[in-house]
From TrEMBL, chain A:
<dbReference type="InterPro" id="IPR029057">
    <property type="entry name" value="PRTase-like"/>
</dbReference>
<keyword id="KW-0328">Glycosyltransferase</keyword>
<dbReference type="InterPro" id="IPR000836">
    <property type="entry name" value="PRTase_dom"/>
</dbReference>
<feature type="domain" description="Phosphoribosyltransferase">
    <location>
        <begin position="5"/>
        <end position="154"/>
    </location>
</feature>
<dbReference type="Pfam" id="PF00156">
    <property type="entry name" value="Pribosyltran"/>
</dbReference>
<dbReference type="GO" id="GO:0004845">
    <property type="term" value="F:uracil phosphoribosyltransferase activity"/>
</dbReference>
<protein>
    <submittedName>
        <fullName>Bifunctional pyr operon transcriptional regulator/uracil phosphoribosyltransferase PyrR</fullName>
        <ecNumber>2.4.2.9</ecNumber>
    </submittedName>
</protein>
<keyword id="KW-0808">Transferase</keyword>
<dbReference type="InterPro" id="IPR050137">
    <property type="entry name" value="PyrR_bifunctional"/>
</dbReference>
TrEMBL record, chain B:
<dbReference type="InterPro" id="IPR006131">
    <property type="entry name" value="Asp_carbamoyltransf_Asp/Orn-bd"/>
</dbReference>
<comment type="subunit">
    <text>Heterododecamer (2C3:3R2) of six catalytic PyrB chains organized as two trimers (C3), and six regulatory PyrI chains organized as three dimers (R2).</text>
</comment>
<dbReference type="GO" id="GO:0004070">
    <property type="term" value="F:aspartate carbamoyltransferase activity"/>
</dbReference>
<dbReference type="InterPro" id="IPR006132">
    <property type="entry name" value="Asp/Orn_carbamoyltranf_P-bd"/>
</dbReference>
<protein>
    <recommendedName>
        <fullName>Aspartate carbamoyltransferase</fullName>
        <ecNumber>2.1.3.2</ecNumber>
    </recommendedName>
</protein>
<feature type="binding site">
    <location>
        <position position="137"/>
    </location>
    <ligand>
        <name>carbamoyl phosphate</name>
    </ligand>
</feature>
<keyword id="KW-0808">Transferase</keyword>
<feature type="binding site">
    <location>
        <position position="60"/>
    </location>
    <ligand>
        <name>carbamoyl phosphate</name>
    </ligand>
</feature>
<dbReference type="Pfam" id="PF02729">
    <property type="entry name" value="OTCace_N"/>
</dbReference>
Length: 180, 309
């Protein structure tokens, strides 16, 4: 399997700071804003953004939750592999809040669709936005687009985009994996 | 992710320890779901479940029904008392008639031992045994173990005594299987007339002195005296039973340690257990009821996952 580096640690560092600044532009002091990282891979990005907002931009009291969408997926019983759930931790109320859903890669849009449904179980937010590190163009199955994106890439369906995080995979990088 | 090793939940006897772990892990997630403002997930939108109760039940039926609704399944309910069973229809005919309405999962309680196993061989649906005679009641045993694990951190190595009417109890048998599978030590305690003759062949010890049993254990699972199943006298009087095998606060406080009190319900207050014990902080009876919904959601979810579109 061929592996090409799309983003290295330095690229990711710059992108994360840009995304943090874009969030500040729209959400000021985050008083009415909550961040929701999607399990399993979106939570690393969400935590990283929270750290940057706190440490580099002195924004305190940022509410961060993690949401698992397994029970809301539309491919239950349509896959050979059973789906494994992860933890959901949302210990605040999303009613009337501006929610930013955070995930690493936007591909078909189905996970985000499931997340929108799942979020309804926690109240009625004022608004919901989407932030992704990688936006895979030309691969959407649903009319879903990100409000904030780190990098847009053009990738064919047989190729895979893999985001690796220092805390989980020993290195910050984004790879393109293909079979040839 | 792992899947269950079985297509039906007919009894704990047919499960492996890994199955129990998988059910518990899944139940953890559902327990979080049922504590959300909106306690429902859409996973089983296209699954239909029939609850067939050929024997009276209140809490098991409610618990299954709630679990099914929380998973968004469509459900139909059937009780033998209002049905054609009274008109002479056989079990297979009854069930096949219901299945032709395109039912995917059958939850069944039946007075006859092995009814679930029999059904699983003759009809094309996943079967969940909600109690068959005095044989097994697997979801009750799962929720009991889950509640012990929640309270004490683990089931392995714990000492559990099951007290009361072991002879007529499907809860006792399923609990013995489940607890042993997870590495717990099990004793049974009750009047000798209510303890099956060959129970020791399952690897459990029999103790007829309640105080000794309580002093030994970490958890006491107190069973109901099943008056409705007793066609002959098994003990002289309720009063004598209460004096010898009833748990009261005085006895509990005199043990010098805090044991956990469980009861599968319905409680005969003042017979096998007094009100102050049932409502004390050592009792996890209401936790058992809450966990029952999460465990049943997990079982139904994991079985439904195997039904391919």
């Amino acid at each position: 399997m061929a592996k090409k580096t799309l983003l290295n640690a330095k690229d990711i560092h710059i992108i994360l700071h840009r995304l943090a600044c874009q969030l500040i532009e729209n959400h000021n002091d985050f008083k009415d804003t909550v961040l929701i990282g999607l399990q399993p891979r979106g939570i690393f990005l969400a935590k990283r953004l929270k750290e940057i907002l706190q440490n580099d931009y002195n924004i305190s009291n940022i509410k961060l939750g993690q949401l698992d969408i397994t029970f809301y997926r539309d491919d239950f019983r349509r896959r050979d592999e059973p789906l494994a759930a992860s933890n959901t931790t949302i210990d605040f109320i999303v009613e009337d809040k501006n929610v930013v859903i955070i995930d690493d890669v936007l591909f078909s849009g189905r996970s985000v669709r499931s997340a929108l449904t799942a979020l309804q179980s926690f109240g009625r937010p004022e608004s919901i936005e989407l932030l992704v590190l990688i936006d895979r163009r030309f691969s959407r199955h649903l009319p879903i687009q990100p409000n904030y994106k780190g990098r847009q890439v053009d990738v064919i369906n047989s190729e895979k985009v893999k985001v690796s995080w220092l805390e989980n995979d020993k290195k910050d990088a984004v790879y393109l994996l293909s079979n040839n | 992710m792992k899947a269950l090793s079985t297509e039906h939940l007919l009894g704990i006897k047919y499960l492996k320890n890994e199955d129990i772990n998988l059910i518990f892990e899944t139940a953890d997630h559902f327990k979080e779901v049922i504590n959300r403002p909106i306690k429902k997930v859409p996973s089983l939108r296209d699954i239909t479940i029939a609850n067939l109760f050929f024997e009276n039940s209140t809490r098991t039926k409610l618990s299954f029904e709630l679990a099914e609704k929380r998973l968004s399944a469509d459900i139909i309910n059937f009780s033998a008392s209002q049905s054609s069973v009274k008109k002479g229809e056989t079990l297979i005919d009854t069930v096949n008639n219901i299945l032709s309405m395109k039912v995917d999962i059958v939850v069944m309680r039946h007075p006859n031992v092995g009814a679930g196993v029999f059904l699983s061989k003759h009809v094309d649906a996943r079967i969940i045994n909600a109690g068959d005679g005095a044989h097994e009641h697997p979801t009750q045993a799962l929720l009991d173990s889950y509640s012990i694990k929640e309270k004490l951190g683990t089931v392995k190595g714990k000492k559990i005594v099951i007290i009361g009417d072991i002879l007529h109890s499907r809860v006792a048998l399923s609990n013995i299987f489940a607890l042993q599978l997870q590495g717990a030590q099990v004793k049974v305690c009750g009047p000798t007339t209510l303890i099956p003759k060959h129970i020791t062949s399952l690897g459990v010890e029999v103790e007829t002195n309640l105080r000794k049993a309580l002093e030994w254990c970490d958890v006491a699972n107190v069973l109901r005296v099943q008056h409705e199943r007793m066609d002959i006298k098994y003990f002289p009087s309720i009063r004598e039973y209460t004096q010898l095998f009833g748990i009261n606060k005085q006895l509990l406080d005199s043990l010098g340690k805090k044991i956990v009190i469980m009861h599968p319900g319905p409680i005969n207050r003042g017979v096998e257990i007094t009100s102050d014990v049932a409502d004390s902080d050592q009792s996890i009876i209401l936790n058992q009821v809450e966990n029952g919904v999460a465990i049943r959601m997990a079982v139904i979810y994991l079985l439904a996952q195997q039904i391919k579109k």
